[in-house]
Amino acid sequence: MKILEDRQYSKDHEWILFSGATARVGITDYAQDALGDVVFVQLPNIGDKFTAGSTCCEVESSKSVSDIYVPLAGEIVTVNGILSDTPGLVNSDPYGEGWIFELQLEDSSSNTDLLDAKSYRQLIEG
Asked: Which CATH number fits domain 8-125: 2.40.50.100, 3.40.718.10, 3.30.565.10, 1.10.40.30?
C-alpha cells in the first residue's frame, strides 16, 4: 500500500495535504483498493461549511457506496470537477489527480487527531 510521507491521514482513510490555511483532501490508496473500481464521485458544494468528522460527499464503486468525511472544520473552496467525467482517477492516482476537494481551514491548529504516515501505516496493518 502506498502511503506518502508529505501528508497526514485520518482514521477514516482520507489524506490531507496542507498548504497554509488550505488543505487538499482525497482518499488513501488503502481506501480506494478496498472500494474497488470507483464509478461515481458525488462532490461537495463550494461554499459548504463542515465541522470535523462530518460527511461531505460520497464515492460509489462497483462494490459499495462510501461516505467521505471532512477531516478538519472548514469551508469547501475547490472541488475536483474532473472526477465527474473520470471517477476512476480516484483508483489510478489517489494521491494526485484523484484528489476530491480543498478546504479553507477554520482553525489550522486543529489537526491533532490526524496521523502521520508511520501511524497511518500502523493503523491499516493492524
From this structure: 2.40.50.100
